[in-house]
Design brief:
- The protein has 142 residues and is mostly helical.
- It has helices at 7-21, 33-45, 50-72, 81-87, 103-113, 120-128, and strands spanning 75-78, 91-94, 100-101.
- It has one domain (4-128).
- A hairpin with a 5-residue loop joins β2 (91-94) and β3 (100-101).
């Protein structure tokens, strides 16, 4: 089972393994998430099933999470029982505003659904730019 304290190393090992064989721009930039979309789509189109692709999907999810850590100020967290049940993953990332996200699950969703709605690049752009709204306060009548 994955743990938050091992995810940075998991991402680094994945990048080292993949970039040693292919010249892929996995530099932890936001733009590199388009490469992740391409890689996930290639796995799916290549006929890999989820079980066979598991290690690669976890590596890609670790990479996406690490982009959030480096670019959006997130931190890796071990999910509690309720979060694990909801996300279906043992780890996630918490943004500075307290929101918890599931990059590993997002990669799996892209693999299974394959639609542009599940783009990892778009995922970063939408969650990074969307702050949690504070509850509206009622104004006292003057």
């Amino acid at each position: 089972m994955e743990r938050a304290d091992g995810m940075r190393a998991r991402a680094a090992a994945f990048v080292a393994r993949v970039t040693s064989r292919h010249r892929l721009p996995l530099d932890y930039s936001v733009a590199s998430l388009r490469v992740v979309d391409f890689l996930v789509d290639g796995l799916r189109k290549g006929g890999a099933d989820r079980e066979r692709a598991h290690d690669t999907l976890v590596g890609l999810g670790a990479y996406v999470g690490e982009v959030l850590v480096r670019r959006a100020g997130a931190e890796w967290v071990d999910l509690d029982d309720r979060q694990r049940a909801w996300f279906g993953q043992p780890v996630g990332v918490r943004l500075p505003d307290g929101r918890v996200w599931n990059p590993l699950g997002k990669v799996v969703n892209r693999f299974e659904a394959g639609g542009s709605d599940d783009s990892l690049h778009t995922f970063y752009l939408t969650l990074h730019g969307r702050a949690r709204r504070a509850p509206a306060t009622r104004r006292a009548a003057a």
